[in-house]
Hints:
The complex is a heterodimer of chains A (1072) and B (363). By secondary structure, chain A is an alpha+beta fold. The longest helix of chain A is centred in the last third of the chain and has 33 residues, at 889-921. In chain A, the strands form nine sheets. A five-stranded mixed sheet of chain A has the order 9-11-12-10-15, with helices on one face. Chain A has a four-stranded antiparallel sheet with strand order 4-1-8-7. A four-stranded antiparallel sheet of chain A has the order 3-2-5-6, with no helix packed on it. Chain A is built from 16 helices and 33 strands. In chain A, strand 24 (614-618), helix 6 (624-647) and strand 25 form a beta-alpha-beta unit. Chain B has 363 residues and is an all-alpha fold. Chain B has helices at 17-24, 29-38, 49-70, 74-78, 86-97, 101-107, 114-118, 120-127, 131-149, 155-163, 167-182, 196-210, 234-240, 245-248, 250-264, 271-291, 295-299, 301-315, 320-333, 343-360, and one strand spanning 2-10. In chain B, helix 16 runs antiparallel to helix 18 and helix 19 (320-333) packs antiparallel against helix 20 (343-360). Chain B starts with a strand and ends with a helix. Classes of the chains: A alpha+beta (1072), B mainly alpha (363).
Amino acid sequence: MPGKLKAKIVAGRHLPVMDRASDLTDAFVEVKFGNTTFKTDVYPKSLNPQWNSEWFKFEVDDEDLQDEPLQITVLDHDTYSANDAIGKVYIDIDPLLCTEAASIISGWFPIYDTIHGIRGEINVLVKVELFNDLNRFRQSSCGVKFFCTTSIPRGYRAATVHGFLEELVVNEDPEYQWIDRIRTPRASNEARQRLISLMSGELQRKIGLKVLEMGGNAVVGYLQCFDLEGESGLVVRAIGTACSLEKLSSGSILNTHTHPNTAPASNACNSPSKDGKESPLAHGCRSTHNSPVHSACSAQRLSQNFSISVPTLIFTGMGSGGSAGKEAGPLKTLLRQQTQTALEQREFPFFTLTSFPPAFLLHVGGVVNARSVKLLDRIHNPALGNTRSYKLLDWNSVTADEPETRDAWWEEIRQEIKSHAKALGCHAVVGYSESTSICEEVCILSASGTAAILNPRYMREGCLDIGSTDHRFEEPSPPTCGFCHIPYDELNMPFPAQLTYCYHCRRQKVPDVLFTTIDLPAEAAVTGKGCLIQARLCRLKKKAQGEVNATAISNLLPFMEYELHTQLMNKLKLRSMNALFGLRIQISVGENMLLGLASATGVYLTALPAPGGIQIAGKTPGDPSNEQHLLTIQKRINEATAKNKELYQINPPELTEEGVGSPIPEPRQRSRLFRSHSESSDEISELDLSHGKKDAFVLEIDDTDAVEDIHSLLTDANPPRGFYSCNTETMPGIYNWTSGIQMFTSVRILRLNNTNLTNQGLNKIFTDLCENLLKSFYFKLRSMIPCCLCHLNFTVAVPEEELIQVAVTAVAMTFDKDQTQEKLAEKLIPKGGSDTDEQLQFPMELCADSSTINSQPSSKISGVPESTNISSRAASVDYGSFADRCSTWLELLRLKAHTIRRGSVKTSRRTQSLAHSVSSLEHSSPLPDGRSRSLRSSRSFGGSTVTVVKMTPLSFLPGTRIIKYLGIINMFFIRETTSLREEGGVSGFLHSFIAEVFAMVRAHVAALGGNAVVSYSMQDCVLMENPNKNQAQCLINVSGDAVICVRESDQDSLASTTTIGHSCSSTTDVTT
Amino acid sequence: MSVELDVFVGNTTIMDEEVYQLWLDGYTVIDAVKVRREGGVLDECEANADVVLSDTMDQYRTFQMCERLLHSPPKLANQLLFQITPHRQTILIERYYAFDDAFVREVLGKKLSKGTKKDLDDISAKTTVTLKSCRRQFDNFKRVFKVVEELKGPLVENIRHHFLLSDKLAKDYAAIVFFANNRFETGKRKLQYLTFQDFAICAGQLINNWTVGAVGPDSFVDNMVEDMDVDLDKEFLQELKELKILITDKDLLDQHKSLVCTALRGKTKAFNEMEANFKNLSRGLVNIAAKLTNTKDVRDFFIDLVEKFIEPCRSDRWTAADMKLYLTHYTNSVHILDTFKHQVVWDRYMGVIKSCIFKMYHD
């Protein structure tokens, strides 16, 4: 008997009136776990009942504890007829199973009914007593920590990163069972909610088991998705990255990562042991969007695969298996060999992380992308007759001769991704994610990631102390540019690209543009600011069934990928930028069209060459009127480019070309032509258009489509003054965030009434839809200026024929406009703090000093190993002079070997000084639990019992420090209405539903003792409506990490709110 | 092509105060957009008409969803659906319960019944306050009335506690409740010149001096009497009848007059008129007092004050200072009348009358 679950029902409030005669309610509560149910007494005639029940005890297996939610049902007692249900609360008790997370769940939960929404609140206490289970064959995985955050969580250190985790469970969808015809919509919704809750519990348990098998203790970057496949079933799948995390505590190993972006000036000075200095650049689970499916499945299956690796276009048909890994330079091979020992055992060297500890990521190759079109079939279900009320199929139990399952599909795609990464000379894929789009019986499976070479030391056991061993693998190039260096062999490139020597270190080759799905590494050198870049595309297709349909779709996909890529490239050039981060390409399928949306954050990487301008070329020179037209367009483009340069402050230092040597192996500089064309892409020609200007990017105008394309290129409005936007965690170039944040979700659905739309017309509508959404955000959030919309996550879907749905979740964060160039100063301050212990006791004073430290370029600075800007600049001078002398590759190689040794020495010195700084900071104990409780209570305002819970899709909250992770929040809700008009139409319906979902997330976090959700994401928002019947139904799935955070005491000025005062005193307590 | 659905939900509920006011004022979305555009909102953040429309609709929806909570403001602080800062909550409540003086003037003293509600469209037409806004204000009055009706204890405190209103607004609501409960006539043409604030101050005087609660805790062991601030003190009204002696007893009347005239002589230009009208005016005031036992006469209290006292004085062109002077001496001189035994009742009566007339004596 490994666990005892205890629950107590305290009280209710704001209950609905259930008895019209008395305008009151006779409420009682049923508490159910597994098959055991307890009831409270009836509390007669009250809308605010005080049950104050005994502790209900459930003795259960820990396996059940992980799978099952605690189910609380509030009912109205009726003497003569059946008791009426008021609503339910499902409580996931997983956070209680982990010793480091929450210890008790206590608070007010909204009572939720799938038909009526929130109907009052109930106060509940839940505790778990776990007994040690020594059975090694146990099926549970209690104690494995889950994080949605796609970076190493703050306050933790990754001792080992074990690798990729995936799992899926399949079941019949209750909505499509025969019984659904006779039961009420409420019963059907509840069955579905409960089933999905069970399935995700089971999924999490199984993933946990895999982690334990691998020897890890945590899952980072956990992403769970639902595929509602209609009659063919319900799939819940998850991916994540297994890690061995260590809590950073006093005397422990160094905190390797200085937090450059968000930490306030004197961040580390008075932060106690559990420092939040980890990388801020991680982002939450990405979302997939599933279209509801209604139709029957066919017996045949069809699969059409193709894949593309960007920035070129390699088309791989099914079975080609991609190109084999090519021979790289000798050094790279050496490096790879070392790494492969760690990675080889793994089937898929994939990582769902998007942001990494420094030195983890050595090189980035580019985006790898694979899609596959499948026909859905009824999922084979061998588990029929199981004693449980639901039937599950897990992929382990599928034998080889059984029908193709979802697992096989995904495995195929992952293999594809793996081979693409190999083709790019990389052994790993980072920033990896998977998604699906379903329409009727057709399903597009997509996977994408960034091919990369990783530092092997993180992947091996017994190699925990960073910097103390394995100097051989210290990165040979400075961190500011190292990741840009090409991992593939330049003589045998997987795709045509233009290579130059790195503009930073001048020693290694870099490509002219770099696309990635990860966040910008914290240590990367960037010129100016970044911005959101989106490519949008609609393609009409004929309505069809079965295989014909699937074939049509898979024939369209390559063209869509190509055009999206072209658009991205053009828009990037127009903004004078040379790299994309956080790239996410989504292709959504509908009955008569395909929607493509690619979002990314463009930046100017200092290490990469400056992009050339865009040039327009006509196909028929000679025609004077056409020439005139071209000139005007060219003028407009030039103006836009100049304006963008100014707007994003892109003023790269003019570098002299001397010493760089011959930049490319080709004798002639090449310009690839990117021309968007709707029918064919096989015309990609390579023109020699050296129009005097280097890297000129030529757009050829030969038909009206091309004109349209250029117009659409120019119609993208820049954000209004005071606003920035990006889809990564934070905006490159902004470092001084203030504490104002506003997370929001916005959904818009457009109905296309015009049946005779062309591709162009559709494109325009779709582009306007996205642009108008952005404009709306800017307008609504104008009171927050100066502010940045971060982690703008667009999800597109075609819920029905003629409908286009776009859902966006993002966070607006304010920043201090006056001191945007603080990055340097921030890096200095922690060092200042570590130098003298006295300063620790006067954190405020130090804080005041920071500005002076900031402003004076003291000679000390150059000695600080942490200040990447400086050190790298110094390095670039060094390397530059070396590079001067080395003209051949071999010489370079020798040099590299030399610098590897140098680098290792340097790094060990750095670690020493850091270790010193940390240990001097951390002769203290972490905050006791009691303190966090008291913090929490002090937060509640003006007699109200409601805790303020902040939510953000980012992994951190500016101006605060996360002191504890309380567990994962993963919730699934269904809402249905049969009185759509009365609820304000679909907009009113969805508006209140989203507000309710937020409310329930906040309530659960508050009950765990938390005050914020980080890495929040809305994976699914599926809306079905039938206005004629006055009905609508919506499914929403959200997830995130519940945390306790405290304000950085030194973030704001001394005279401020009490909360600051509180945390101030607490930090002083700790440090003295 | 049409927008089928368009929502924006923030974790912290976003509310634009300007749009809130437009919503409260009963503007339709289209009209509100027009007003906002005229107000120059398009210049902010490069907005266009669609953006403003979408924003306005979102906000209107949010307000509609909040409205249910605003009906019992303490719920707003405890509810979980919307995360609204306390400061914002206060603004939301205060604005929601704010009312137009023009509107309240129309319904002041009327029964807050369905019948009155039916007349709201007329009131709306007359006051140019939109019907929607009229309904909201009327429902607010009615809601506050219903809640405090059943409560014990001081009226203003109850309103403030149950509706979380500011002191000023709570007092105004107390006046509205008091007027509605006693059904004071305020709509007659002769009373049209009086503003709501005039009446509110008078109501405050009446509540503080003439109700059961006004007598103070010493006279009641338990001062938590139901309706203590809403109903006039019956005993007191009965006692007022005794004041009649001031006009029925000829000696007393003459004595009173000579005392007042002596005190006033030479101090005001209107002395002659005062002397000539003394008996009339005194009769007027004392008769009002004597009749207050009848509910009907309570209703006519203000009209009587105007007809019997204010109008005669106004036709004699008394200044406000004259009025103050006269009433002060008129009240105080009674203290010197040895044979008059009802000094306490007299003071309690005249204290209120004086304040009311001071407030009401203007153009």
